[in-house]
Protein 1
Amino acid sequence: MREIKVQAPAKINLTLDVIGRRQDGFHDLKSIMHAISLYDFLTFKLEDAEGLTIELSGNSDEIPYDEHNLVYKAAIKFFEAASVQNAKISIYIEKNIPVAAGLAGGSTDAAATLFALNKLYDNILSDEKINALCASLGSDLNFCLKGGCAICTSRGEKIRPIPFLELPVSIVKPKNLKISAKEAFEEYDFQEEKNCINSTEALTKLIVCGHFDQSLIHNDLEPPILRKYSGANNIKYNLENSHMSGSGPIFYTLTDELSVIFEPDEFIFVEHLRTIGDGVKVVN
């Protein structure tokens, strides 16, 4: 039996500009994403077997441990691409990233799965093939695999690394509120007024020159989510300089500690995080 453990980081969006709706139903985006030091940990145990078996387990009761999990789908994609027909893979998911929160928790786990299986099979697939599999599974996987700081375009799967920033991060979300990317973009489309300010371009110019301006942080999906959900709106207007990540409802501040006390029965919050320059990697 072979075994490997990897860490899969969450991400925040420093910017998220929605350029327009695509013919395939997705949206063209421009976004600056940054990996942060909040991790899921996945342990993979690979055995020889007759036929192909994928077993998922974990510590969370908020995710499925079957073919509906993106980890399972990533494993299937890998085995098909690598022409592996006889194997048993057991995957344990230690879930620390809040679910359906705008932090790419599912995407980073799936990217970690492709990364880890390729390691277990001695890099049988090229980096280009792994990136292609990432793109086929979702919009955030390519960034999660690489990590650091990057400009993400198309539907998010095309990434261009830029210098990573050393920033403190704290996060908070309503405990019982989950928002899918599909819902967030539908709410955005329903808006009559859309303010396109192209924050990504402006902030990118600063970052590549070694500067940063928090006033340029912007997320086009934030206004419709604030209008729909009072819990998200409560965080935004009580927590100074807070910003929604991705499709929400997580909000982050670039501080070591939150300036407002949140009740643990009603909110999930993590303080003293950091932006990081890594993506998925093996845990020693």
Note: The chain is about 30% helix and 30% strand.
Protein 2
Amino acid sequence: MDRPLENRTAIVTGASRGIGRAIALELARRGATVVVNYHHSAEAAQAVVDCVREAGGQALAIQADVSVLDQAMHLVEQTVDTYGQVDILVNNAGTTRDRLLLTMTEADWDEVIQTNLKSVFNCCKAVARPMVRRRYGRIVNVSSVSGLVGQGGQTNYAASKAGIVGLTKSLAKELGPRNITVNAVAPGFVLTDLTADLPDDLRRRAIEATPLGRMGNPEEIACAVAFLASDDASYITGEVLTVDGGLVMHG
């Protein structure tokens, strides 16, 4: 089996379920040692680690609320202490608190911005120094098509994901001279826990608006992330790769 990420160490935030879980498993399948970050779901995170180890790979679960800078710093420090390096960072941790702006509370806004956007700042800040020292790094941030075109009832979520796009492009310019690439993926409608409770009408309309005529699956997002994390993408930085079945097209 081709293992293009062998001898690389990757941190995946929010990796205990959904897209994060799929990303962790795909990076491991391609040879990376994977740190499975989680906030609350210790059992689910350990299940991901067990899957990696059963397949012959290396993995470790580390608890951290990456929306808190000190905990994000500790996550990276623990990874470097354990494996000697961190080559790949995938910022996937996220949440939703969907409601119309008229009924959205300040707490709804703050939690989504803190979890989805500030966590990316925190983790990027934490890995920047060790990556700069080694003059190598791959950072992949998980945004969303909602951050590109907006979505009613998701002003907080769309703002957080649009912020990730701006952060990605700016950081790519800062870190490019040090051989560190920074890219983002923007998934469309994907079958995860976050979309499982979508009303049937909204699900139907989303599928009808998608040229491929279906929702995506986490593994399809994971493959895009793994590509951007590999040396096959060594001349790509500051880009946003939409993985959405054609839902959002820019002409």
Note: DSSP finds eight helices and seven strands in the chain.
